[in-house]
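Q: I'm building a small set of examples for a reading group on sequence design. Run inverse folding on the following structure and report the sequence directly after it, with nothing in between.
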């Protein structure tokens, strides 16, 4: 007990009846019944209903003070009548009769309502984030985040990992996203970079012989905001392990995720052993390397059908001959759906900037021959439809949605269409988590504009195959021991078994246009350390923000971040970024040049 409270606002029950208590908190709601004033007092832990009679000298004062005023009340615990019990709150069987009160913190007029979780303008919510965080849903999200991080720490320690901290001020990296740079006062004209991730440091920890490392690591990337990505900074569970293969990393992460998601959600986990899906297969079946496996729809390539003379859909045939791909999605037993269902999906596709989605349903005529019913069904013969059924495993009564485009766009079209069609059919199980691993990523990719070969993902990944006998003459065919973990269509993390062999690293970097001198300069700490006996090692770094977003069933990452920035990477509450004065610039040996219009 202290001078402010004997109990929290979630603690009182029938065992406290007739006891004198002190409570402190915010006035969440008031209800004036004339002779009786009801006050819901809220603190971090819960709500207690307090009452005061009109004959109490404090009645008129409490009647006037605004919501969100911080008060301390002294009173006695009463039992509620059976018809007034509130089962929605822990203290719903009691109420506190107020004898006296004291104002601890006054409030100005509120710029947004606190007692309600209604949608409100983002600019106001972020400017007054300290008020926004009082609201029940987001307050609970932040508490959930704290509990999730605490749980992860305990689980990682149980799995034999040690937590170490890595530097925040480090050197700039030529790979990955744009760095945040910090000028050095003691080294004029030189800059630190905030770490995009502790990638090189965690590998150095393995070289140092520590074997199993983890960290709840802050990461900084100068990227644009998205619903599932904060601009500026985010947190990840950074993991690295020595003397491991890919499957060893998978086992640890699967144990952690299953334990974490079953502890904090009642939703079903579809696969306790997460499916392993090669990158190429994922792109071909789902149109993306972030598939939502709750969605049963599969993409099929039907380009070969358009070689047939009995397919007369000339627009697609002409595009196919010029190099385009034709892919389709089969929807089960949807031929009886109204025309508006099909037209709305086609209309949606055109709103995306595409030419639309061609469609028809497979039916049979009176002579038991296959026919296509719909705008383009007439272009397919009975034999062509039979072949289509073989390729796609379609059935009579199913519908076909088709698109034709070049390779750069066809995957995006089909991936988004797959999700849209599933939403329209309401076939995504919202009460489940479907995890999977995407594996076998290519090490390199070709820049079609410059014809230059670049690293497609992480330049430090170990190539698959015998490291002493790799065919480096065909770099675009090389696969890496590189993997992503995906849940419900959201990428939680990328990871890899690392390339710990310096000679091999030089060879791979040379393919991407880096000579030995450049590698030594850009990655001096890493390449030097690997030359002194490095163990085989690998790791991963699941995003904390995205994990909590899934567990809280939120669509936007700002709903699970305590003090997020807006879309323009601005902190409206603290007015950051901000200008600095001339003396600070001078101290840092910097000068700001005005941009010419």
């Amino acid at each position: 007990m202290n001078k402010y409270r004997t109990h929290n606002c979630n603690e009182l029950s029938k065992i406290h009846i007739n006891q004198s208590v002190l409570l402190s908190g915010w006035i969440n709601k008031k209800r004036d019944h004339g002779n009786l004033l009801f006050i819901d007092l809220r603190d971090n832990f819960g709500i207690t209903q307090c009452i005061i009679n009109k004959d109490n000298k404090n009645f008129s004062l409490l009647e006037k003070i605004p919501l969100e005023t911080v008060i301390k009340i002294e009173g006695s615990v009463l039992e509620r009548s059976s018809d007034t019990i509130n089962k929605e709150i822990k203290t719903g069987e009691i109420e506190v009769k107020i004898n006296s009160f004291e104002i601890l913190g006054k409030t100005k007029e509120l710029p947004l309502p606190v007692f309600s979780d209604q949608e409100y303008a983002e600019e106001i919510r972020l400017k007054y984030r300290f008020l926004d965080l009082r609201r029940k849903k987001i307050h609970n999200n932040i508490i959930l985040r704290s509990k999730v991080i605490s749980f992860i720490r305990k689980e990682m320690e149980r799995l034999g990992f040690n937590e170490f901290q890595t530097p925040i001020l480090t050197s700039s990296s030529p790979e990955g996203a744009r760095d945040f740079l910090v000028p050095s006062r003691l080294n004029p004209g030189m800059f630190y970079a905030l770490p995009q991730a502790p990638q090189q440091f965690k590998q150095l920890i393995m070289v140092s012989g520590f074997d199993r490392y983890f960290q709840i690591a802050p990461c900084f990337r100068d990227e644009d905001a998205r619903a599932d990505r904060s601009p500026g900074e985010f947190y990840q569970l950074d993991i690295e392990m020595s003397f491991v293969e890919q499957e060893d990393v998978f086992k640890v992460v699967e144990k952690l995720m299953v334990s974490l998601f079953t502890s904090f959600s009642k939703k079903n986990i579809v696969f306790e052993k997460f499916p392993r899906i090669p990158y190429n297969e994922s792109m071909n079946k789902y149109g993306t390397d972030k598939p939502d496996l709750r969605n049963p729809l599969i993409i099929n390539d039907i380009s070969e059908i358009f070689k047939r003379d009995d397919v007369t859909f000339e627009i697609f045939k002409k595009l196919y001959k010029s190099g385009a791909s034709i892919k389709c999605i089969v929807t089960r037993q949807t031929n009886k759906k109204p025309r508006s269902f099909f037209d709305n999906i086609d209309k949606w596709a055109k709103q995306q900037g595409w030419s639309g989605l061609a469609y028809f349903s497979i039916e049979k005529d009176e002579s038991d021959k296959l026919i296509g019913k719909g705008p383009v069904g007439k272009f397919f013969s009975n034999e062509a439809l039979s072949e289509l059924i073989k390729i796609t495993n379609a059935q009579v009564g199913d519908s076909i949605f088709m698109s034709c485009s070049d390779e750069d766009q066809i995957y995006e079209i089909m991936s988004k269409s797959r999700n849209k069609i599933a939403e329209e059919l309401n076939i995504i199980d919202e009460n489940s988590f479907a995890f999977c691993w995407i594996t076998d990523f290519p090490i390199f990719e070709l820049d079609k504009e410059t014809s230059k070969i670049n690293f497609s993902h992480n330049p430090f990944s170990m190539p698959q195959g015998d490291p002493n006998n790799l065919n480096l003459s065909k770099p675009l065919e090389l696969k890496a021991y590189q993997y992503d973990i995906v849940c419900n269509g959201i990428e939680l993390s990328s990871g890899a078994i690392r390339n710990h062999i310096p000679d091999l690293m030089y060879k791979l970097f040379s393919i991407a246009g880096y000579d030995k001198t450049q590698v030594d300069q850009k990655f001096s700490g890493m390449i030097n350390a690997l030359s002194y006996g490095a163990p085989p090692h690998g790791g991963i770094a699941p995003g904390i923000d995205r994990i909590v977003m899934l567990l809280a069933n939120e669509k936007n990452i700002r709903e699970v971040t305590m003090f997020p920035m807006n879309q323009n990477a601005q902190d409206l509450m603290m007015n950051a970024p901000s200008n600095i004065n001339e003396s600070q610039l001078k101290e840092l040996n910097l000068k700001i040049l005005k941009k010419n219009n």
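The chain has 16 helices and 24 strands.
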